[in-house]
Amino acid sequence: MTNVHPLLPKLAIHRQFIDDFIAEQTPCFALGMIEERKQKLGLLALRPRETIPPEITESGFNFGHSLLGNAHFEVVHFAFEFYGFCTYNVLINPNNPLVQAVLDTMIGSGEYVVLVKGANQGVTAFRSQIGQQDLAGLTDNLVRIKNSTTSESQYQQALDQLQKNPFPPGQLLTWVCRDNLGYLDIAADRLEMTAAGTRGGAVTASDETDRVSQQRALAELLDKKVNGLVNTGVCDDFILLSHMAADMSLFKQLMDLSDKDEMNGLCAVYPGLYRYAKLLERIATGIQSGEIEVPR
After folding, report:
1. pLDDT band for position 292 (50/70/90)?
2. Distances (CA, A) of 36 to 10, 42, 106, 163
3. Which of 62, 114, 183, 265 could form a disulfide with 126 if both were Cys (CB 3.0 to 4.6 A apart)?
């Protein structure tokens, strides 16, 4: 068992993955990828029926992992023990490309992130620097995991056995969101989650969703205005700028809401916004170099 403690990171995750995960019935579990400080890590996401109290999550939890089965098939077992509260068991089929990709990342980096979504809107984030020695059981069986031929019926057989005799005793989480490899490509549909408090490593996705919605609304508004002017025959950049002067505050608001990568992504989607951004960039560069004189 590995002791895992909460943290307060800025995390990036695949938006559709988290949306689909939240739409599933509880209790459930999913594997995915998550990004923290530009490092891609394996993600283990839990949604128990109940919300785990902050005083429990503050203490972290024990994480156990093992390979179960026989000479004909194997399954991976995870156990999450929250001290004095509950233990959650998960069984996954290693004959699954998504499982293999996530486990390969976990074993390769020696680190992982756990998200626990309760019945409320909060999400608690944990990161463990587990090291290779703490994954010895999975590492030693990595070749067997990668070569697994476990069928769905064999997986169900193992699942039925665990339901009848859970060990360690606890709640069994249903493995969901298991077949979409697109979930692993965070850049394709990026959602950032920012820490909202200090107790239990709580992270809220709802505030981040509002921020992203504001980004898109501002980008669409500026894009529509630029395209509308161009469609009426305004082609000269400086004439375009004069018409858009009143909208510089909106552009600044968008910049304040976005980092560099997000702005690049928005500009790639909205050509009018891109033109406006490049125009402002050229003017700023010209003023800085002295090419454009600013009246005193």
Report:
1. low
2. 6, 11, 14, 35
3. 114
